[in-house]
Design goal:
It is a single chain. With 463 residues, this protein is of the alpha+beta class. The chain folds into two domains: 72-362, DD-peptidase/beta-lactamase superfamily (Beta-lactamase, 3-Layer(aba) Sandwich); 380-461, Lipocalin (Beta Barrel), CATH 2.40.128. It is built from twelve helices and 23 strands. It has helices spanning 4-35, 79-91, 115-120, 128-135, 144-154, 170-184, 188-197, 211-214, 245-248, 262-271, 280-286, 352-362, and strands at 39-45, 48-55, 57-59, 64-65, 72-73, 206-207, 226-228, 233-235, 258-260, 291-294, 297-302, 307-309, 317-324, 327-334, 339-345, 388-391, 395-401, 404-408, 415-419, 424-427, 433-439, 445-452, 455-461. The protein has an eight-stranded antiparallel beta sheet, sandwiched between helices. Strands 16-17-18-19-20-21-22-23 form an eight-stranded antiparallel β-barrel. Strands 5-9-6 form a three-stranded antiparallel beta sheet. Helix 2 packs parallel to helix 6 (170-184). It is globular, with a radius of gyration of 24 Å. The relative contact order is 0.13.
């Protein structure tokens, strides 16, 4: 009888996996076809890839397509690799988390900041991005050493005393990359390659941030594009003065600049369940809720280079997002269910709602699949029914202007809601969001729904 169990179980497991794949493919293909998602996606469950897809262009200009080995800039998802580099140095006795950073940068004008403060965003250091925007020659490329020189020169006030607050700091992680170089005698790129990427078999992963300074583009690279409202098309950020930081910050590493594929991130994800690179104790500390990010939010913490939610509807979640002109990235690990979602976009598609949609599929929750929304003509008088203030996770205000319905929020542009029926409207900004109303025989609103990337939540009418 024991011999029959694998034969009975295996087809069931394959069937379940195919069901996931079919729904995930339908959801993400719809997001690409109707809502501009461009990028690569991979979903991992219990150590196996259950869905993987490349959707769209690696280069909008040449129409070169993405494939499953396309390489993306990770932006801030890179921070966990910098953190791992520091952890490896610590285990080799090259540094201590309690080391004062003046040990490595004696000229810095700040006291009592430790390596641990840099790892957990509790240093209070000024933002180098703000400093370089205001005080740097934008025709000149900056490197990590220039950050130290700028901090020393300006001596800007700390946001808070070390260990007394939390503020996300790219400055801190750029300094960590420089510390790795100082204590190892190797470049940041070489250290990560020899001690992380090569041991894990991440053959398509490397530190790359010199496209503008060297003009070299790696093979099979997913170029990052931004949308131009005036040109009504996607363009390289290099062609717009609005994004000149892609040039003058081209030499800085540590807070970003790890480039990789979804397949290599699968190897990284699996390594975080074992002690391939560092001891279990070190890994457990990295992935622990070390610092509460806000006194008003007892659910969100930071570890070493990762966000940590100890408890949620999906159990413990370890994640990080990344953003840079042309790129939006997300790596979300649901530890208790051994599920991981990785989304790499090279046209800045916001990944948060896509992650939520994929989570719903994995949890067998209801999800409305994306489809093409077409505007129809309705009697403008019908819109009067829907004007008012509604509440869900936030307050939504609907107003009527020139015979059309708009979502209004103070401080942001109004977004038109176009009718696809007399009771359902879709956002005109190209996002996968709709508002659906239910009315009685007299036309009075009895219920309203906010639909965001297929997830449907009830709205309460306040007035």
């Amino acid at each position: 009888m024991r011999k029959l169990i694998p034969l009975l179980f295996f087809p069931f497991a394959v069937s379940a996996q195919n069901a996931y794949k079919q729904k995930l493919q339908q959801f993400m293909t719809g997001q690409h076809d109707y809502f501009r998602f461009n990028g690569n996606v991979i979903v991992i469950k219990k150590g196996a890839i259950i869905y993987e897809q490349a959707l769209g262009y690696a280069d909008y200009d040449s129409k070169r397509l993405l494939n499953d080995s396309s390489v993306f800039e990770l932006a801030s998802v890179s921070k966990q690799f910098t953190a791992m580099g520091i952890m490896i140095c610590k285990e080799r006795g090259l540094l201590s988390y309690s080391d004062n950073i003046k040990k490595f940068f004696p000229a810095l004008p700040y006291e009592n900041i430790t390596v641990r403060n840099l790892l957990t965003h509790t240093s209070g250091l000024p933002s180098y991005e703000d400093q370089f925007e205001k005080h740097w020659d934008h025709k000149k490329i900056a490197f990590n050493k220039d950050i130290v020189d700028m901090l020393q020169k300006l001596h800007d006030t700390l946001f808070f005393d070390p260990d007394t607050g939390w503020k996300y700091s790219n400055t801190g992680f750029a300094l960590l990359a420089s510390i790795i170089e100082k204590v190892s005698g190797m470049s940041y790129n070489d250290f990560l390659a020899r001690n992380i990427f090569q041991p894990l078999g991440m053959t398509h992963t490397f530190v790359y941030n010199t496209r503008r300074s060297t003009g070299k583009i790696p093979a099979n690279y997913a170029l990052g594009f931004v949308y131009s409202d005036s040109l009504k098309k996607y363009i390289l950020p290099d062609s717009s003065p609005k994004y000149d930081e892609v040039y003058y910050l081209d030499g800085i590493v540590g807070d970003g600049c790890v480039n990789t594929t979804t397949g290599d991130l699968f190897k990284w994800d699996q390594a975080l369940y074992g002690n391939n690179l560092v001891s279990k104790a070190s890994l457990d500390e990295m992935l622990s809720p070390l610092v509460q990010m806000s006194p008003r939010d007892s659910s969100s913490f930071y570890g070493f280079g990762v966000f940590v939610r100890p408890k949620s509807e999906n159990g413990k979640i370890i994640s990080h997002t990344g953003g840079w002109p042309g790129y939006a990235t997300n790596l979300t690990r649901m530890v208790d269910s051994s599920e991981t979602i990785i989304i790499l976009s090279n046209n800045e598609t916001s990944s948060g709602v896509l992650i939520a949609g994929i989570e719903s599929i994995l949890a067998h929750e209801p999800l409305l699949m994306p489809y093409e929304h077409k505007e129809v003509k309705i009697d403008p008088a019908i819109i009067d029914r829907y004007v008012g203030k509604y509440s869900a996770f936030m307050t939504l205000v609907f107003i009527k202007r020139d015979g059309r319905l708009y979502r209004h929020r103070d401080g942001t542009p109004d977004i038109e809601l176009k009718p696809e029926s007399e009771t359902k409207f879709f956002y005109a900004d190209g996002t996968d969001r709709q508002i659906e109303f239910e009315v009685d025989q007299s036309g009075k609103v009895t219920k309203a729904w906010f639909i965001n990337s297929g997830q449907k939540g009830e709205l309460k009418k306040l007035e």
